[in-house]
Design a protein that fits this description.
Oligomer: single chain
Number of strands: 22
Strand order of the largest sheet: 2-3-1-4-5-6
Helix content: 25-40%
Radius of gyration: 34 Å
């Protein structure tokens, strides 16, 4: 929201522009005033906003100054006089086209001055009918207000309407021609509804409405206020309410009603409370708050992060079978841009049962994401409503993450403090790395072989260790990216363990590993050796020493023999 707003008053000669400004400043009517009032700056005029109010002259000789002020204005008030019908006609005939012709694209407020000189009464509906053709043709016109500078009637409202048009713009929210909320506004309000519907029953009950009110306006609703709101919505459409609360359509209706009553600021308070900016997108500082990661440290989920992810898993597990189906995952991610793991092979990257993601698989996948790309985790904690959830209410998303001690410090202390470990799986093409990764997350053996392309793939699973859950993230790389990773000391430092995989039935497979270790000097990283395809005939490796001897010389256990095909 802007903290300073420049308000320009324009209009025909004698309509009362200068008088409106003077009456607003003096809080009294002044008879004899200059033809044009010097600009005046008013601090803290509305919600901490500084207003600069600028007068103008319509005379041809003053046109260059008018044009200059039009280009500097944040909002324009076109004043016409009730007792000068021609000044109203010139709104659409001259003033609005002229402003457009200067390339100015800012909100416009129409102001009918001197209502004290009107004969008879004019209702709000009559005024709306009168200005509707203008507002339909000129979308920049956001409101029309009538006032009397002599009687100090609605003078303050004129300036406040102008400020609100800038600080709380109507155009992004509402289609004045169709009298409906705009699609992006509807999407934002629907997401807010889903986040506030904590128990996911499709309505906001009194407790959820109260929490919504507290978050946005820092005060609870009284029971009679909730009853009044429910009755108002039910009178419009009974299907929008039930005995349990107000549904999504009802929430959209009363926000539309707020706008139609001129309370656009209320909608913006709601939107900004949930992190939205003027473009109705979540603000960058909300999606990606600062979270510094020191060299050689890694990022994990904190206990509150795991708690939140566990709770939303359980809420969206509608059939309570302990796993999330594709439709349940779609519902869970409905407040976000979509599944963050699309294109990664998910859910084959984690633990599933019958194609559904188990709780262990769900937490494992988030452990992987947080380790490899904690910024994605931060943004999705925002999308999924971490700060709106009872267990983490009003807490920043960064509290869901934990920065570990450096790997170097762990090795020096001889004690590992981390719960998520990054494991690089290296070996020659065809050695069985992909099959090993699939087996690690309980996926079956695939007979047809295909090489690993691009940056490779990663899988994750949890293991019990020392009475607690530890997560192992296994990564393999495409041939091009493998050498790129090993040449980078920064990327190598991210590895906790290297698993060297060789095909025990291929005479040339182990030499690839040996050459890799020599070429990239990998001795400082803890490692193990795995001999795959033990169901096939054992081949003598074309290497100066056999794998068992090689491992023993390094002080390591002999290679672990596995057969993914046989499940051994």
């Amino acid at each position: 929201m802007r903290r300073d707003v420049r308000v320009l008053l324009v209009g025909d000669e004698g309509v009362g522009k200068s008088t409106i400004i003077t009456s607003f400043l003096k809080r009294s009517f002044v008879e004899n005033i200059p033809r044009v009032i010097p600009e005046v700056t008013i601090p803290d005029c509305l919600d901490g906003v500084t207003a600069t109010v600028v007068d103008s002259s319509p005379r041809p000789a003053d046109r260059p100054h008018l044009d200059s002020e039009l280009r500097k204005a944040h909002v324009i008030v076109i004043v016409y006089s009730i007792d000068q019908p021609g000044s109203f006609d010139r709104l659409a005939a001259w003033w609005l086209p002229y402003i457009r012709g200067q390339g100015v694209n800012v909100p416009v407020i129409l102001c009918g001055n001197k209502i004290d000189k009107r004969d008879g009464e004019v209702t709000a509906a009559d005024l709306q009918l009168e200005v509707l053709p203008i507002m339909s043709e000129f979308k920049e016109v956001e409101a029309c207000v009538e006032c009397s500078a002599r009687l100090l009637l609605n003078v303050t409202e004129v300036i406040f309407f102008a400020l609100k048009a800038v600080c709380y713009p109507l155009a992004p929210l509402y289609d004045s021609r169709e009298h409906t909320l705009k699609p992006k506004c509807v999407d934002a309000l629907r997401r807010i509804f889903k986040l506030c519907d904590v128990n996911k029953d499709g309505v906001l009950d009194p407790a959820e409405l109260n929490e919504f009110q507290r978050k946005c306006f820092s005060s609870p609703l009284q029971l009679q206020e909730i009853d009044g709101l429910t009755r108002l919505i039910a009178d419009h459409d009974a299907s929008m309410v039930s005995e349990n609360g107000i549904n999504e359509a009802g929430i959209l209706y009363f926000h539309t009603r707020f706008i139609q009553q001129g309370r656009v600021d209320t909608i913006w308070i709601v939107l900004t409370s949930f992190g939205y900016g003027e473009d109705l997108e979540l603000r960058e500082e909300i999606l990606g708050p600062r979270f510094d990661v020191s060299y050689d440290c890694s990022v994990e989920l904190s206990p509150s992060g795991y708690q939140f992810l566990t709770e939303i898993f359980e809420i969206f597990d509608k059939d309570q079978d302990g796993a999330l189906s594709e439709s349940e995952l779609e519902a869970l991610f409905s407040t976000s841009p979509g599944n963050p793991w699309a294109g990664t092979g998910f859910p084959d990257t984690t633990v599933t049962t019958g194609g559904k993601v188990t709780l262990q698989g769900w937490l494992s996948q988030w452990s992987l994401t947080t380790l490899l790309d904690h910024r994605t985790t931060l943004s999705y904690l925002c999308y999924l409503g971490y700060s709106s959830y009872p267990s983490s209410l009003d807490r920043p998303t960064t509290t869901a993450l934990h920065l570990t001690r450096s790997r170097k410090a762990d090795r020096k202390a001889g004690k590992v403090t981390r719960n998520v470990f990054n494991v690089y799986v290296l070996g020659a093409a065809g050695a069985g790395k992909t099959s090993l990764l699939r087996a690690f997350v309980g996926k079956g053996f695939e007979e047809e072989w295909s090489s690993t392309e691009g940056k490779g793939r990663a899988v994750v699973n949890g293991v019990e260790r020392g009475g607690g859950e530890k997560y192992l993230v296994l990564q393999e790389f495409g041939s091009k990216y493998e050498s790129e990773t090993l040449r980078s000391s920064k990327k190598l430092d991210l590895a906790d363990v290297i698993v060297y995989v060789f095909d025990s039935s291929d005479t040339n497979s182990f030499s690839y590993i040996s050459n890799l270790r020599q070429q990239y000097k990998l001795n400082h990283i803890p490692c193990i050796f795995v001999a795959t395809k033990s169901d096939l005939d054992l081949a003598q490796q074309r290497h100066e020493v056999q794998p068992d001897v090689y491992a023993k010389r390094l002080g390591l256990q002999v290679p672990i023999s596995v057969s993914v095909r046989e499940g051994e």
